[in-house]
Amino acid sequence: MNKKVECTVFLDLYELYLEDEVEDETKQWMMKHEETCRYCQNSGKDHEGNPALHEDREKIWGIRVLTMSLYSIFLLLTIWMSIWYLW
Ligand SMILES: [Zn+2]
């Protein structure tokens, strides 16, 4: 794993790590990573984790909601169109 991937995995698992819900092997890896990685030490201090990461998740969620509503509108329109056409 390269450094960036390690940090992503670390931050992903950090909440579980705090709650002691990761496997021993993972926990050991994370303890080691936290010791050696300045970036994750800083991100770990505020329990919010990495703010950029949260922003990304919100963006992804927004896109998902948007896609779903567009899809529903399209579906309704299609149904309406076929009813109108058959009438
Ligand atoms: Zn790191």
Keywords for this entry:
single chain, 2 domains, 4 helices, binds zinc ion, 87 residues, mainly alpha
Describe it:
The protein is rod-shaped, with a radius of gyration of 22 Å. The chain has four helices and no strands. Helix content is 84%, strand content 0%. The longest helix has 36 residues, at 51-86. It has two domains: 1-49, no CATH class; 51-87. The chain is mainly α and 87 residues long. The chain has helices spanning 3-18, 24-36, 38-45, 51-86. It binds zinc ion (ZN). Zinc ion (ZN) binds next to helix 1 and helix 3.
Q: How many domains, as an integer?
A: 2
Low-confidence stretches: none
Overall pLDDT metric:
85
Q: Please give the number of β-strands.
A: 0
Largest sheet: none
**Gross geometry:** rod-shaped
Q: What class do helices, strands and sheet pairing give?
A: mainly alpha
Instruction: State the helical fraction.
Output: over 70%
- Beta-strand content estimate: under 5%
Hetero groups in this structure are: zinc ion
Number of helices: 4
Order of helices and strands: HHHH
Radius of gyration: 22 Å
What is the CA-CA span between the terminal residues? 61 Å
